[in-house]
User: Which sequence fits this backbone?
DNA sequence: CATTATACCTAGTTCTCATAGGCATAGCCC
DNA sequence: GGGCTATGCCTATGAGAACTAGGTATAATG
């Protein structure tokens, strides 16, 4: 509960978006989200890795072992066609949801 | 999984906001969220009522039985001082999180 | 009188996240 | 060489929250 619990329902969207630009390994996905958000999106490894496995089981991602630039062993993930379609769906769903929440929040107070 | 699962982490914020303008009963909270969002925010009763009870246990809400305009028995909830403080916290947290997610989504693609 | 909408409730399932460990290797400093 | 940190992966367990799928009761409507 330290960070979010807001992740539920958006974590897979975020991961898909991270990988849409090209393959990345899991650790790099977590680092990218954290750094590109100034620390707001801080995904615990205990949430990140299970999510990646889950998404691979669902056919949204595919993976292969390889090496990082510094010669370390790492598992690289890429978005499958199904994953690409899901990314667009989730994108729309998020936009719709966020707009609705903002609408309620900004409602003029009686 | 039919509707959202995006609610996790925002449902309490939405409820607090609904009640910030004055007391409402549970059923009316659900209806208000659904109608004011064009159906996007459709909270199941199995999520709504437990959330209200939970928030009352936490001291964010207080309740009292009363009657609706049409003479029906209903439990009315109002926001406590703690609930008011929480509303502002959650508001900030949501704004920060939503901005971060939008930032990742809109990142220029390689 | 039967059906619908209102208005409340909860037990059980399922899913996801966080906690809290574990393993292995590369680079750094002492 | 020895210890520490960062990288990179993993999972078992627990907690928490939403959904499913029921239930109750009453007022209005056909």
Assistant:
């Amino acid at each position: 509960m330290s960070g979010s619990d807001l992740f539920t329902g958006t974590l897979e969207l975020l991961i898909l978006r991270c990988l849409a630009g090209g393959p990345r390994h899991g650790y790099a996905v977590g680092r990218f989200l954290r750094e590109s958000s100034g620390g707001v999106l801080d995904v615990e490894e205990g949430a990140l890795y299970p999510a990646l496995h889950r998404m691979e089981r669902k056919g949204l991602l595919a993976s292969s072992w390889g090496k990082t630039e510094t010669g370390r062993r790492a598992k690289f993930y890429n978005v499958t066609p199904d994953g690409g379609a899901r990314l667009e769906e989730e994108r729309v769903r998020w936009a719709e949801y966020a707009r609705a929440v903002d609408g309620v929040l900004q409602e003029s107070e009686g």
